[in-house]
């Protein structure tokens, strides 16, 4: 009897799943999205009906692609149609609206499609900073006004010394003295006080790098605390090399 009840329960579950799948196909949905000549990572939230196309953009061009003239293609439920049509060239510097209608015309959904940059930028301003505890750290503003946190410094380690209570007293901080823009990065060597002297680390240099830094691990294993670099998806168009000049 127990096995029979279990089979009946599994049968009801399978029937319910098939009913939901059929209902889903009848109403018309976007099942997947892709950009021109490249696979995209797609994040879809059916409740908010938003789709994010994530690719290798720097806000203007990437691998020869211009976000002002992109033509994403969409995979729809059987028989559904989309307006504008899949493959239509559009300007994705701002999110764009698409409408999907079911085969029988009874159902329709609207989707807001955005292009989200995921690759590292190639130009840095150091004009935007945020506070992390007592110190601050720069971040980049990329396409769509999204904050991309790619920078790290040794400030997390210096915080353990208790030698600074405000961001401007840390080895790495922002400064209004800039050649252009609102702010710039200021790097300064600081004493680590008695805490650092006890660890045979009497000074801390200001530094900035793309990667991550584990301040708690810094005192135990400094080499393991730092991870330099992040994945970069673009290809170099060319290299410029200069040979050293020998003066006789």
Helices and strands, with pairings:
Layout: H1 2-27, E1 30-34, E2 41-45, E3 50-55, E4 61-62, E5 65-66, E6 73-76, E7 81-83, E8 96-101, E9 108-117, E10 129-132, E11 135-138, E12 140-142, E13 146-148, E14 151-152, H2 155-158, E15 172-175, E16 184-187, E17 190-191, H3 193-198, E18 203-204, E19 209-213, H4 215-218, H5 222-225, E20 226-228
Parallel strand pairs: 3-9
Antiparallel strand pairs: 1-6, 2-3, 4-5, 7-8, 8-9, 10-11, 12-13, 14-19, 15-16, 17-18, 19-20
Overview of the molecule:
The protein has 248 residues and is of the alpha+beta class. 18% of the residues lie in helices and 32% in strands. A five-stranded mixed beta sheet has the order 2-3-9-8-7, with no helix packed on it. The longest helix has 26 residues, at 2-27. The relative contact order is 0.11.
């Amino acid at each position: 009897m127990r096995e029979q009840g279990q089979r009946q329960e599994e049968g009801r579950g399978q029937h319910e799943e098939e009913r939901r799948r059929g209902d889903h196909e009848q109403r018309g949905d976007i099942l997947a999205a892709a950009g021109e000549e490249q696979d995209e990572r797609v994040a879809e939230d059916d409740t908010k009906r938003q789709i994010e196309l994530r690719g290798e953009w720097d806000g203007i061009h990437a691998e020869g692609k211009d976000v002002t003239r992109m033509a994403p293609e969409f995979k729809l439920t059987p028989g559904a149609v989309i307006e504008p049509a899949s493959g239509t060239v559009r300007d994705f510097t701002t999110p764009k609206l698409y409408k999907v209608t079911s085969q029988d015309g009874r159902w329709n959904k609207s989707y807001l499609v955005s292009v989200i940059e995921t690759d590292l930028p190639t130009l840095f301003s150091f004009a935007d900073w945020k506070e992390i505890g007592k110190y601050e750290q720069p971040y980049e503003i990329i396409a769509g006004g999204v904050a991309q946190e790619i920078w790290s410094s040794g400030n997390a380690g210096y915080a353990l010394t208790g030698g600074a209570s405000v961001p401007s007293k840390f080895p790495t901080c922002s400064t209004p003295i800039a050649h252009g823009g609102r702010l710039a990065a200021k790097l300064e060597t600081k004493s680590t006080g008695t805490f650092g002297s006890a660890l045979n680390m009497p000074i801390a240099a200001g530094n900035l790098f793309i990667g991550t830094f584990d301040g708690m691990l810094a005192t135990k294993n400094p080499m393991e605390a730092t991870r330099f670099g992040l994945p970069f998806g673009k290809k170099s168009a060319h290299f410029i090399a200069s040979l050293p000049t020998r003066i006789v």
